[in-house]
Automatic annotation (TrEMBL):
Keyword Ribonucleoprotein (UniProt): no
Example GO molecular function: hydrolase activity
Organism: Blastomonas fulva
Protein name from the UniProt record: Altronate hydrolase
CDD domains: SAF_AH_GD
Domain SAF: 13-80
Native organism taxonomy: Bacteria, Pseudomonadati, Pseudomonadota, Alphaproteobacteria, Sphingomonadales
Any Pfam family: GD_AH_second
DNA damage keyword on record: no
Keywords: Hydrolase, Lyase
Family indicated by similarity: Belongs to the UxaA family.
Family matches, as InterPro entries: GD_AH_C, GD_AH_second, SAF, SAF_UxaA/GarD, UxaA_altronate/galactarate_dh
Length: 490
């Protein structure tokens, strides 16, 4: 049930959500608030005893720490998580992937030689090591001025890693860079090395999928006289090749799209994330590839996601990924519920269960078809679950390394940051969209009143961006990467 002031999401829920600031004593959803309820925050619709489970989205979001009366504000002062450690997940009946449906939606993209499709035609410079990061940026600046208008962009994506790393940590850096090099949006790639780093160019190029190696050039700075001149010559060659590409009509199924949220608030799970979920369902049904990540932000909601696995192998891979990530926390002596963030809490999210149940709505109800390790490419066709943490920059970089050519990023509090591929910022509330038009590409709050109209407008926005319309982050020059650093630094 929805009113202009508040929302009762599921019939089983014991709480409602304020859609605007509610004053103490104001009627809402048939009860009277006992305190002021900020927008996006919860209030009790019935009495709860101390120790009783509190339900939202039809699922438990934690346990009451004290008695809660109808109309009371329900938040961190009287609600705590019930999450704890690893779980022995039990598979249910497998979900069928369903029949792919023809979809009339099309966009204008680049069809690459390896059969994949791109939303941008760019040149990327990827340093093997932080020692040549500034050099990479200088090469990109000079080349952008020299080749203005010939390609969609020339960008250096720098990082501080690539040396003094050991074992799996170095392998993770190499895998992420190799995945980025293979991304279809990069028509050409310069791998810029120093020469003495742990992340040697020969090993890095061997990690790039063979079908993508033809667009990659390599340069070792210590092995040439003037590395800027040498890099410029290689970039010139890559630009000349890239200019042959032309946009052409592409089906919706040709999109591989990352699903991401950051700076969530109490409305994220009601507006922006369900909007993404409906799009993800349509994309998956058409044969496209939505990719969900941020594994710690599905803790508490993983049962619903894993129950949609198409077979036992996929279920077991997903369950192992979730438990592996929990063990990553536990081995550091940290609770698995070390979330939500201060910004999330200020926006009305109290427990990780609540945050996760809202966050997984980005994946809609599509069957889970693939489970993908960090640095690997997502196979085409159907919903994929990708290994990466919740950190915005790390997880968004992982999505690009997995082959996503757009990232759909929902937010309730806002962030200016963009990533290697077009990053579409979707506001959960109208106030953010109005205050930050230079950050936000779409206002999802319209979905509260007319979900179908919101879906149509959202699809039109995405198809335009896929066809070359620039996102707010692209217009502001907000492009960065972050690599997941997990091991010892020498």
């Amino acid at each position: 049930m929805i009113t202009l002031s508040s929302l009762h999401i599921h019939a089983a829920d014991g709480v409602g959500v304020a859609l605007r600031d509610l004053a103490a004593g104001e009627p809402a959803l048939g009860i009277t608030t006992g305190a002021a309820i900020p927008r996006g925050h919860k209030f009790a619709l019935r009495a709860h005893r101390a120790g009783e489970v509190v339900t939202k989205y039809g699922q438990p979001i934690g346990v009451a720490t004290s008695a809660i009366a109808p109309g009371d504000h329900v938040h961190s002062h009287n609600l705590v998580t019930a999450l704890d450690g690893e779980i022995a997940y039990m598979p249910g009946a497998s979900t069928t992937a369903g029949t792919r449906a023809s979809d009339p939606a099309t966009w204008q993209g680049y069809h690459r030689a390896d059969g994949r499709f791109a939303t941008r035609n760019e040149i990327w410079i990827l340093p093997t090591v932080g020692c040549v990061a500034v050099t990479a940026e200088q090469v990109a600046r000079d080349a952008s001025a020299r080749h203005a208008g010939r390609v969609d962009g020339i960008h250096a994506f720098t990082h501080p890693h690539g040396c003094s790393q050991l074992g799996d940590d170095l392998c993770g850096t190499r895998a992420a860079l190799a995945g980025l090099a293979a991304n279809p949006n990069a028509a050409g790639v310069l791998l810029l090395g120093l020469g003495c780093e742990s992340n040697q160019l020969d090993a890095l190029i061997a990690s790039v999928p063979e079908a993508a190696r033809g667009k990659v050039r390599m340069l070792t700075s210590q092995a040439v006289g003037n590395e800027l001149d040498a890099a410029a010559a290689l970039i010139d060659e890559l630009v000349d090749q890239a200019t042959a590409a032309r946009r052409e009509p592409c089906p919706l199924s040709a999109l591989t799209v990352g699903l991401k949220c950051g700076g969530s608030d109490g409305l994220s799970g009601l507006t922006a994330n369900p909007l993404l979920g409906r799009f993800a369902d349509r994309l998956a049904a058409a044969g496209g590839t939505p990719v969900l990540t941020e594994i710690p932000e599905i803790f508490g909601a993983e049962h619903a996601l894993l129950s949609r696995a198409i077979d036992r192998q996929t279920f077991e891979a997903g369950a192992a990924l979730v438990n592996r990530f929990k063990r990553y926390f536990l081995d550091q002596g940290l609770p698995v519920s070390e979330n939500p963030s201060p910004g999330n809490i200020a926006g009305g999210i109290t427990t990780l269960e609540e945050k996760s149940l809202g966050a997984v709505q980005k994946a809609g109800q599509a069957p889970l078809v693939h489970v993908v390790d960090y640095g690997e490419a997502a196979p085409p066709g159907g919903l994929a679950l990708l290994e990466a943490p919740g950190n915005d920059a790390v997880s968004s970089t992982a999505l690009a390394a997995a082959g996503c050519t757009m990232v759909l990023f929902t937010t309730g509090r806002g962030t200016p940051l963009g990533f290697p591929v077009p990053t579409v910022k979707i506001a959960s509330n109208a106030a953010l969209a109005a205050a930050k038009p230079h950050w936000i590409d779409f206002d999802a709050s319209i979905a509260l009143e007319d979900p179908e109209a919101a879906d149509r407008q959202f699809l039109a926005t995405l198809l335009a961006i896929a066809s070359g319309a620039r996102t707010a982050a692209e217009k502001q020059g907000q492009r960065t990467i972050a690599i997941w650093k997990r091991g010892v630094t020498l």
